[in-house]
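Archive maintenance. Older records in this collection stored only the sequence; we are now back-filling the structure field for every entry so that each record is complete. The fields below show one back-filled record exactly as it appears after the update. Entries are processed alphabetically, and NAD(P)H-dependent oxidoreductase subunit E is next in the queue.

ARCHIVE ENTRY
Title: NAD(P)H-dependent oxidoreductase subunit E
Organism field: Oryzicola mucosus
Length field: 228
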Amino acid sequence: MERLAARVAAFDGVTETAFAFTEQGEPSLRETLEALCAKPFAEILILPLFLPMEPSLLAWLKRSLSRWQLEAIEPWPQLRMARQVSESDAFDRLLEALTQSIADQTELVPAARKAAEGSLVPPQKRRVLVCQGGPCNAAGASAIWGHLRNEQKRQNLRTTGDGTMTAKTTCLGPCNLAPVMQVFPEGTYYGGVTERAVDRIISEHLLEGRIVADFAYEANGRKQFLRG
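Back-filled structure field:
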């Protein structure tokens, strides 16, 4: 990613480049955008390098960008988004060059069979599931997952407190409350989850054992709606 950013920096008209990750990885997209927005730029061009670029991924990206701008204290500069990389005419030329550059290709040799290895059963008492169903993905679940994983690494959540394991999951059920997370062993459902909600869930629920009522929804047998 650093090399790609350096190559883009050599293009005419480019003042500064930065890279970011939409899921797990640092720096996150939001952190990078906030850092760039603190500088005197009139415009920022986002070059999405998702392969493949699924419609739901593009939908949550646009919604997340809109939400982050609304949450910002100072107005952001104008945002524009380039076409998907796979839609560019140059992408065909790139693929053709990669397939024809035999000198740059690595011959794959079958690995030697390894002896069977054992595994430790995770001792962590807490589990956090992040829904990856269609409505949740459209509402930005991928960004929530990335933020959670970054914080898990940053705060050493696997070994801090009761210990926490995180995992993506298929539909958790309450789709109209997207994005949805569920925390065990309590089985608490959290809806309308944002990065700030994740931060509170970590500090209050995962580390102190207190359910965050502002984002929690009980299984009460009645239809529920996202709280404003």
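Update note: The chain has a mean pLDDT of 88. The two ends are 38 Å apart (CA to CA).
Entry marked complete.
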